Structure formats: C-alpha cells, structure tokens
Amino acid sequence: MAELNKGDEPMDATPNVSEVDASGAAATESAAVEAIEAPVERGEPILQVRNLVKHFPLTQGIVLKRQIGAVKAVDGISFDLYQGETLGIVGESGCGKSTVAKLLMLLEKATAGEVYYKGQDITRLSGRALKAVRRNIQMVFQDPYTSLNPRMTVGDIIGEPYEIHPEAAPKGDRRRKVQDLLDVVGLNPEYINRYPHQFSGGQRQRIGIARGLALNPEIIICDEPVSALDVSVQAQVINLMEKLQDEFNLSYLFIAHDLSIVRHISDRVGVMYLGKMAEIGTDQQIYDHPTHPYTQALLSAVPVPDPEAREGRERIILTGDVPSPANPPSGCRFRTRCWKAQDKCSTEVPLLAVPERFKGADTPAAHESACHFAEEKDVVHAA
Ligand SMILES: Nc1ncnc2c1ncn2[C@@H]1O[C@H](COP(=O)(O)OP(=O)(O)OP(=O)(O)O)[C@@H](O)[C@H]1O
Ligand code: SF4
Ligand SMILES: [Mg+2]
Predict the structure, then answer these.
(1) What positions belong to coiled-coil segments (predicted)?
(2) Which ligand is nearest to the Cα of residue 257, counting in written order?
(3) Which among 347, 371, 377 is the best mutation to test ligand 2's pocket, defined by most ligand atoms within 8 Å of the CB?
(4) pTM value?
(5) Could you give the CA distance from residue 50 to residue 147 in angstroms, rounded to a whole number?
C-alpha cells in the first residue's frame, strides 16, 4: 500500500466501499472456549471473549408489549485478542459485527457470556471500575461525517474524552495535548479551532483516530474505519493506523467488508456468519488455506486482476439469501446456502475447533473452523 502522505488528501472523499462480504457458519458454547488455542508466538491475550450472546427482543403490541421472539444478533462467540495484534473481523451485512463491537465497548449489555479484559470480566462491572476500563478500550467509527459533531471545533472534539476522564489531562494541559494528537495523526496543530466541515473525509477520520487516542487506550475497536473513504485515502488512513499501532503498542479489532484491506492490516482474521464465528486463524491460514465453505465462497468472489491467477480458479456461487437472525436454521447456520450440506448439518451445531483430521498436523489448514466437513479447497486467494 502507498506510504502515508501527510496532509495531502483530496478534499472530497467519495464513499466507496468494496462490497466483498464475508461470513461463516456456526460455532458455540463452552466447547468452543476449550478449543481456542493461543498461537505459540503470541503473548498474553488482552481481551478474551467467551460465549458472547446478544439477543434483541422482538415485541408486539403498542400498550401491552409482549415479546414474540428475538433477533439473535450475536449468538455464542468466543475469541481472543492479543496484545499488540490486529484481529480482523469480516462478515456480511447484518451478521453481527457492529453488535460485537458495541458489546466490547460496553455500549450494549450482553444477554450472556463474558468479556475478560486482562483476566477481569468487564460485563459485570459498574461505577468507577467500569469507567476505568472504558478508558482503555476506545472506538473509531465508520463514518467520519456523522460521528463528529459539526458544531464543535476539532479541539473540543478531540479533547472531549478529557471531560469524562479529567484525570487523564489537567485542564491547563489539554490544548497542548490536543495539538500533540493532531500532530500524531498527521494534521496541522494550528487547525485546532477549525470545524469538521473544513476537513476532507480522510482528515476527518484522522480526527476520529486522534480522539480515540486521547486517553491513551490499549485497545481500539475499529468498526469499518475506512469503508466510507475514497480508495486512495483508505491506504493513507490504514498506513497511519499501522504506524500508531507500533508507536503506542495498540491492539486493534478491525471490522471491515473488504477482504483485501482486512488481509493487509490483520495478523489474524475471524469470519462471521449470522451471529457466529465460522473460521478464525492467521491471515495466511484464512486467505491461503480456508477450510470453511463460506470463507472459500467469499474468497472465490474476490476480483483477481491477474489473468493468469484467474485461470482455472473455481468460482463458488452462493445461492439463497442470508436467513433472518430472528429465525436461524437449525444445526449449522450456513447449511441453507452450503453446497456441501448433509443431514448432520441440520441437526448438529458445528463447534469452532481445529478439525479432527488436521489436529496435530503441521499444516496451515490446522486452524479453527466451524464445519463438520472442513477441508481445504483451492480457491483463488484475495491479494
Ligand atoms: N438495537 C437493535 N435492535 C434490534 N435489532 C438490532 C439492533 N441492532 C442490531 N440489530 C440487528 O442485529 C443484526 C446484526 O446487526 P449488526 O449491526 O451487528 O450487523 P453488522 O454485521 O454490523 O452489519 P453491517 O455490515 O451492515 O454494519 C441485524 O439483523 C440487525 O438488524
Ligand atoms: S458442510 Fe455442513 S457444517 Fe460445514 S459449513 Fe456446510 S452446512 Fe455447515
Ligand atoms: Mg456494522
């Protein structure tokens, strides 16, 4: 990707999202937790997500509301985020990515499950303890147009977290801190009194990142942080995020639709489908050795510019729509669209685990995949 060019972005950033979706099938419950194996070379996990569930109630009636069901937005997800790594999360629209982000940010209350931050379950915290944890987990949002208050100056926007956490910067020191942050994200510190509309899309996303950094967090949850940006600007913002990660030893959870961007920035990648994690592994395992049929279908749909690489590639066309999360299929959630589905797939939920056939084998296919019939398939890889 192109090197970051400080401050030279085009002034109008056209929304341009690469609509490559991802998802995968089921995985669940306590067995999934046991199945999570720390990659050998990694340090301590900073976040451990265990059987996380978020069901939004579906109600009927205007005066006397009664619950008639639930949207199972996130339905038993487990994964680890390691110190200093980037974990990419891909999944098609509505599969639950933003809900996971909100649960980790404690903006939504989990229906069930735990989120351990340095070993402490933060879903049960309140008051001061909760506030202290919140300082360490910050978020960068998708749309820099709507996530910044147009009536506030950039200085006030970036410095706002200090109002909630005054201990992070004494009042007299805040202006200097905000100017330092502007400098860190590649913006002129003299812009401190400008308003969001005076910046380009990429510059606005830099402001969002500066705000995310204000409290010196350890984890940043990035929900589609570059999806609304022009392709050329995406590269600059990604470069900046990578630079900041090294500088501040940040751990990123990076949610996106674009498989190529996720591969570029991520150390590991998780593929979600209908509220579940289908497959998770290193970027090489997922992109070059996917074993879950859904991941394979997604990768086969990525446009490949090289005609030689295109030749002989198998294109997997998925049929049918994504089922409703209010009424997901039994067994494997992907079965209604899976070309390999068998009887077992409708009765048994496949757990997210290293497939039996690959256990102990020295192969990149030996990573967690929630499929009863997980196997490698030669699909063309996203660059
Ligand atoms: N507050 C809510 N009340 C009811 N249903 C909700 C709520 N928030 C999300 N959902 C539903 O939960 C499911 C997951 O939504 P979520 O926003 O997490 O998906 P997503 O993967 O982030 O999608 P996108 O890629 O479009 O951003 C969707 O079916 C959505 O309609
Ligand atoms: S083969 Fe069965 S378990 Fe595997 S993804 Fe397809 S439907 Fe799910
Ligand atoms: Mg979302």
Answers:
(1) none
(2) 1
(3) 371
(4) 0.87
(5) 29
